[in-house]
């Protein structure tokens, strides 16, 4: 099938309705929705029997390598509504040298490198879907609180289809993020507070001037976009799943989305009932999920004085807390916190040893893998997938001061 054909031909879609993730209450598809009446995230439901009949692995294998290949499991009904900036299938990159040093098999430690996506982070997946659906539903003005990457992806996709955006980020958000958001056509403000303080401003703007609230999990479609990580991963592993997935968890969209993906893939007969253990990785300066997991709680109260260099996971409170905790527990996984020192050391080690420059949040998953090996919760013969959620190049890098004076004699043997 030619690429153009895929983008212009209408395709059958299978969305039946939306469902409150907490109460199970049903909501009609094809209408603008935020949270459910219970104040919880809405999940998109599909006619999975229909998908099972309509889609084969062979059909899928012939499609272009972008995540719209999974369109039967995505909510966009009309091809004309797809807003795309070129969402590549992200590669699985083994880290053989550090795996070997840790005594693990060379192919057991793999990174899914999400830094290759538009705007340099996996937020592109969620926002490509959220913006495509906003376009389909006629939304004109989207607003969002962000630690950086989500705002950049929203700005890019919304501008690409002429939707207006207003974005709020904590005042210490990295300069590169604020700049890219502004350059990509959004109106962006630094706010003296954390991401949930920014979220309150968006909530007020929604009530007062009708902005569409694009906050994490407060609209139904970012999960569907993030779900494609699970679909891709299973297809890349030959319709199998790894033993363990280590996911840097902020709002948890990706973890929740992948868990949903695996259930849907089983329902359409593409994978069996094996599931990876889902490991929610947080920073010790902001670890609400870890605390709730360890205390056996269903919900995770706000983490006060949240701080970590891994700004993408500096999320003190998540609306989808119970969905994250449920997926982690049902999978037999766990939640784990790593210190900023461990994150920095992990980033340095992976870059130096395997030539892979991770973002701090991605490096946190490697630090967590090592900690998991040390405390016996992960075995060396298990296949583990780390998520590098953004390109390491988006973050401030340490200055290097070494110079060479070309007018002086050079001692080559010492270089
Ligand atoms: C958003 C983000 C995360 C957290 O992802 P969630 O799915 O919202 O938990 C992790 N790392 C980076 C770089 C991010 O931008």
List the topology elements.
Blueprint: H1 3-8, E1 15-20, E2 26-28, E3 42-46, H2 48-54, H3 57-61, E4 92-94, H4 96-101, E5 109-113, H5 123-136, E6 141-145, H6 149-160, E7 164-170, H7 175-183, E8 187-191, H8 195-209, E9 212-213, H9 222-236, E10 244-248, H10 253-267, E11 277-283, H11 288-294, H12 321-330, E12 334-338, H13 340-354, H14 360-374, E13 384-388
Parallel strand pairs: 5-13, 6-7, 6-9, 7-8, 10-11, 10-13, 11-12
Antiparallel strand pairs: 1-2, 1-3, 4-5
Bound molecules: pyridoxal-5'-phosphate (PLP).
Pyridoxal-5'-phosphate (PLP) binds at residues 121, 123, 149-150, 216, 248-254, 312-313, 359, 361, 389-390.
Description:
The chain has 415 residues and is of the alpha/beta class. The chain has a domain at 92-118 and 222-394: Rossmann fold (3-Layer(aba) Sandwich), CATH 3.40.50. The chain has 14 helices and 13 strands. The chain has helices spanning 3-8, 48-54, 57-61, 96-101, 123-136, 149-160, 175-183, 195-209, 222-236, 253-267, 288-294, 321-330, 340-354, 360-374, and strands at residues 15-20, 26-28, 42-46, 92-94, 109-113, 141-145, 164-170, 187-191, 212-213, 244-248, 277-283, 334-338, 384-388. The strands form three sheets. The chain has a six-stranded mixed beta sheet, with helices on both faces. It has a four-stranded parallel beta sheet with strand order 8-7-6-9, with helices on both faces. Helix 6 (149-160) links the parallel strand 6 (141-145) and strand 7 (164-170). Helix 13 (340-354) crosses helix 14. The longest helix is centred in the middle third of the chain and has 15 residues, at 195-209. The radius of gyration is 21 Å and the shape is globular. The N and C termini lie far apart (53 Å). The model is unreliable at 1-8 (pLDDT under 50). Bound molecules: pyridoxal-5'-phosphate (PLP). Pyridoxal-5'-phosphate is lined by residues 121, 123, 149-150, 216, 248-254, 312-313, 359, 361, 389-390. Pyridoxal-5'-phosphate binds at residues 121, 123, 149-150, 216, 248-254, 312-313, 359, 361, 389-390.
